[in-house]
UniProtKB/TrEMBL annotation:
Name of protein: Glycerate kinase
InterPro entries found in the cross-reference section: Glyc_kinase_flavodox-like_fold, Glycerate_kinase, Glycerate_kinase_sf
Classification via PANTHER family: GLYCERATE KINASE
Gene Ontology molecular-function annotations: glycerate kinase activity
Keywords recorded for this protein, A-Z: Kinase, Transferase
Taxonomy, superkingdom: Bacteria
Cited SUPFAM superfamilies: Glycerate kinase I
Amino acid sequence: MRVVVAVDAFKGCLSSADAGEAVAAGVRAAAPDAQVRVVPVADGGEGTVDALLAGAGVSRVREAVRVVDAVGRPVDAGYALLDGGSTAVVEAASCVGLGQVDVGPDLPPRAGSAGLGLLVRHAVDRGARRVVVALGGTACTDGGIGLLVALGARVRDDAGDPVAAPGPNPLWRFGSLDALPDLRGVELVVLTDVDSPLHGPAGAAHVFGPQKGATPEQVAHLDRRLAAWGAALAARGRPVAD
């Protein structure tokens, strides 16, 4: 008998590989002659890089980088290099992941995606011409502003002051977008398993904000800011609100 074990991670408890090995041990105990193969899987969140490498039959090739987590604390994250280093695979959950922070109403005003931008920037500076970004499992609702500022975008808050990265959630007081980053031809490929608009009842704040600690009042505020952010992007030729 041949058995393939493909189990997603148990969030905050077991990785996909660890959960798979536990299942495999149970199968072998029940059927000692079984041929069991554990295949890591992921949905764009934690463990996506490992699942991609396992699926491609590629040994682990990682760059270790000191960036920041969703609330600006130093954290070590890594990314995979494929195709001789021309392709990097970056995992948002490794640097701005929900499992790295305490969830509560004080989190939404603080959490941002700058750490992911720093990770992408490191891969680009190292020579990657294609960066695959797995977006699942993040702790922040900032419309990607932190990521873009870390990559060179120029954004101002509602007082007209420049937004720095890392820093508090830049969406919370978003005012205006002066310029988007120039990655000089680097291709960004996004891995996601959801199809949601930027704002509105089915948008990011309403659907994902509560799992990141947002109160109903915070959800409403974030949704209004996402609408303003979407309008600013559309004015720059990037209509992404849908």
